[in-house]
Amino acid sequence: MLPDRYHDAIEHWRQHNFPDYPKLAEVWPKFFPKDDAFCLCAKVSEDISPDIEIGDDKGKPKALAPKELGPEAAQHLLGQIRAQASTEFGSIQQHQMTLFRAQEPQDKAWALRVMAEELRHGYQMVHLLTSSDWSPVTDTKPEDMVEEILSMQTGSHVLAAFNLEFDSFLDNVVFAAFIDRVGKYQLTMQRISAYKPYASSMPPMLREEAFHLAAGVIPLRRWVEHAARGDGYIDMPAIQKSVHKWFGRGLEMFGDERGGQTNVKFGLKDLNNRDAQDQYIQECAKMLDDLNVRYVRARFPDRTRDEADAIFARVAAGETVDGLSRDDLLRLPDRRFFRRRGEFAFQMVGTHGETFNDVETYVAHVLAALPEAYRASIDVKHWADMQREVVAGTKPLKEAMASMPRLARQAGGCPCGKSVRWVVN
Amino acid sequence: MGDVRIRPVNELDIEAICRIDERITGKYRPDVWEDRVVYFIRRDPDSSQVAEVDGKVVGFMLGEVRGGEFGMEEPTGWLEFFGVDPAARERGIGRGLTDALLAGFKKRGAHVARTMVRSQDAEIARFVAAMGFTPAPVSALEKRLA
Question: What would the mean pLDDT of B14-19 be, rounded to a whole number?
Fold first, then answer.
């Protein structure tokens, strides 16, 4: 457990940002009857290599305190922990927006559990920031680091994926399937961290993350079946548009495609950004293929497995079979589509990899591919403004990439008017 | 066929598991396997295993460590569901899955693994016997409810 003041600060944050948390205990016996009760606590794994597993210092003992790392490596590590913490708390704020629009009690209970476990992951990060001496790395005191993290709101988080508002429960589910999947990659890469307390934190988080991915994929599997039978509420175009909303933000969570070697050199991760991203893309493509297979089976219930597989293969290759065409199925957009960070930022590439020369035609293409509610958001408007300015040459690409739709709010973010620091003090 | 790779199950294996089950039973039961696989992923995603050949899942084995059931307090590794694609049999896939599952059980503190086999499933009975399972000093009882 964290010292009382930090534990209380997180509890205070939870009251304002995750008010439905108490409902988890109510639904737990019904939906997770044999599972141990949820515990808001830090967990560590003992099953971690004592030696650095990759990079320049491979074979040397892992650091047990930040000061045992080189200054630059320690800075990178601190940045990782802060970013990880921001994602954990940020995703809860997003899920909370639309949690109770879930149509199925099970979906709602699963999302509640995901949120609670994300809270535990955030708690884990606060534990890492407050249980070691970071003074050789930063002048910021631990309580100020915690204050900064807990005062972030949707719009002021470190990564863009956590600054998008959820428009419906479809976002809760697609986010779990796509964005938590990036989280799985980050945690997996960080499992070899040269900083042992961080590496030891990863296995318990990964075990919980496995369920989070299922909490995205299973509802999607059931929705596509209903969509195929025509008796559901969520159709394939709605899912496809949500994929368009989230996929690019997921890719950008890996960092610039051309980077990541420094983390490998310092022994903090075992893959560079592009390699990790490539694996992620393959996995997302497989996820959509599986959903498409489920759709085809439901659309043609009288066909055998082999016949359905053959139909899927033909449709995927571009044929129309018994009224089913490629556009009826889900597909991953091109990795360059709707990007605002990294190697492909603000390149005008469409969902299928087609390139655009005219910015207004491209903006129209992107808008048509996004969910209607999201199109009305400040985030989309900000992207379109940046896209136009980059093309016109009035905004340097670097500035556009760094630009956020809202100013980061520092401190005082607590709705009761008391900053988190007030609780700590 | 390439080398066999055994790894923990994940949510993207569900369709492949449905496919294997369908090849064995002739039934497509996605809802059933979604519920089962999620149960094991939720409780202990490292225990349950799948076997891949050339990147394709050809076998699965689902189980977990529990204690206190039927008065048996000791942590017990329960082998609950498994299947190997008929086209991939006789390649040691079942043994590889069993070895990985039992190693995981042991790591989680179990000193015994248990399973149950219906009397009419002679093929399954032969398989689990070949894996070293022997009749246990417990009786499986049932009562039909009208």
Answer: 97
CATH code at A4-293+407-424? 1.10.620.20
What does the mean pLDDT of chain A come to? 94
Contact A223, A111 (CB under 8 A): no
Phi then psi dihedrals of residue A308, to 5 deg: -65, -40
CATH number at residue B44: 3.40.630.30
Has residue B62 been placed in a domain? yes
Please count the structural domains in chain B.
1
Q: Which domain holds residue B25?
A: 4-130
Q: What is the count of residue pairs from A and B with beta carbons less than 8 Å apart? A: 53
pTM of the model: 0.95
Contacts of B14 in chain A (CB under 8 A): 217-218, 221, 290
Residue type, A82: R
Q: Please indicate if any CB of chain B lies within 8 Å of the CB of A221.
A: yes
What amino acid occupies position A249? R
Q: Going edge to edge, which strands form the sheet with B112-114?
A: B4-8, B49-53, B56-66, B76-84, B112-114
Q: Are A169 and A143 in contact (CB under 8 A)?
A: no
- Tokens 């990790």, located at residue: A276
Is the residue at B141 inside a domain?
no
Q: Where are the alpha helices (DSSP H) in A273-406?
A: 273-299, 305-316, 359-369, 372-375, 378-392, 397-402
Taking a contact as any Cβ pair under 8 Å apart, which residues of chain A between 147 and 186 contact chain B?
A: none
CB contact under 8 A, A207 and B11: no
Q: What is the pLDDT of residues A185-207, one digit of tens each?
A: 999 999 999 999 999 999 999 99
Q: What residues of B are in contact with residue A225 (Cβ under 8 Å)? A: 30
CB contact under 8 A, A305 and B14: no
